[in-house]
Amino acid sequence: MSHYFEPAEPVAPDQLREVDVTLAGQPARVATAAGVFSNGRIDLGTAVLLRTEARLGGPVSATGQLLDLGCGWGPLALTLARLAPAATVWAVDTNPRALALTALNAERLGLANIRPALPAAVPEDVELDLIWSNPPIRIGKEALHQLLAQWLGRLAPAGRAELVVQKNLGADSLRRWLDEQMGFETRKLASAKGYRVLSVSRKRPGDKAQFA
User: Fold this and answer.
1) Measured distance CA(180)–CA(182) in Å, rounded
2) What are the chain's domains?
3) Predicted pLDDT of residue 138
4) Under a CB-based contact definition with an 8 Å cutoff, are residues 202 and 185 in contact?
5) Which residues contact 127 (CB under 8 A, 6 or more apart)?
6) For residues 187 and 181, is the Cβ–Cβ distance under 8 A?
7) Measured distance CA(138)–CA(16) in Å, rounded
8) Among 83, 104, 142, 175, which has the minimal tally of Cβ within 10 Å of its Cβ?
9) For position 113, what pLDDT does the model report?
10) 1 CB contacts (<8 Å, ≥6 apart)?
11) CB 154 within 8 A of CB 129
12) Closest Cα partner for 137 from 168, 95, 102?
């Protein structure tokens, strides 16, 4: 199964597949293609993250710097862009086909605030107010830790990340690593369909660990 971080050639028009989905409570017809993660639907983990965010109704920074890490064809980035039209939404992937599809879907939906980008193309001075990600667990623990350390390290002081991870693929051990090894404050927001939704933020001086 192709996952987020496998390289692929940009998609040709005759390779597009049309899929009807709901994003930020509104219907959307999006383009997907083979060679991109979950190309026929919104995958279960991403759906759990989106349902959790909708249920909690947490604030999305109206004018901040937001990130969809491992964007695929763009369900998280497109949702963030709809929820926060004045924010800048970075849609990051190493798969050129994923970036091309995200750009196409943003154009189709009239979302001018999405910036599809390879990781190195995100300016170094960008501090992130919010990260949403269904991270690529199957790339292996070491590579995953490097990936998360890179991007979580770019959180603004009051920023946070919301990650969805399968329980049987190490959600609880990842939470411990984030807390104990990386020094973040990690809370479990929800557990559904075999997934955990984790909220990750920087610890403030004097904070004590919180457990959900």
Assistant:
1) 6
2) 13-202 (3.40.50.150)
3) 83
4) yes
5) 65, 154, 155, 156, 159
6) no
7) 26
8) 142
9) 97
10) 37
11) no
12) 168
pLDDT at residue 58, rounded to an integer: 67
Residue type, 12: A
Question: CA of 67: how far to CAs of 33, 105, 115, 153, 173, in Å?
Answer: 22, 16, 9, 13, 24
Closest CA to 195 of 72, 49, 37, 11: 49
Mean per-residue pLDDT pooled into runs of 10, the chain (212 residues): 50 87 95 91 96 84 91 96 96 94 96 96 96 92 94 96 94 95 95 96 62 38
- Report the alpha-carbon distance of residue 57 to residue 141 in Å, rounded: 31
- In this prediction, residue 12 carries a pLDDT of 78
What 8-state DSSP symbol labels residue 87?
S
Give the predicted TM-score (pTM) of the model: 0.90
- Per-residue DSSP letter, 197: E
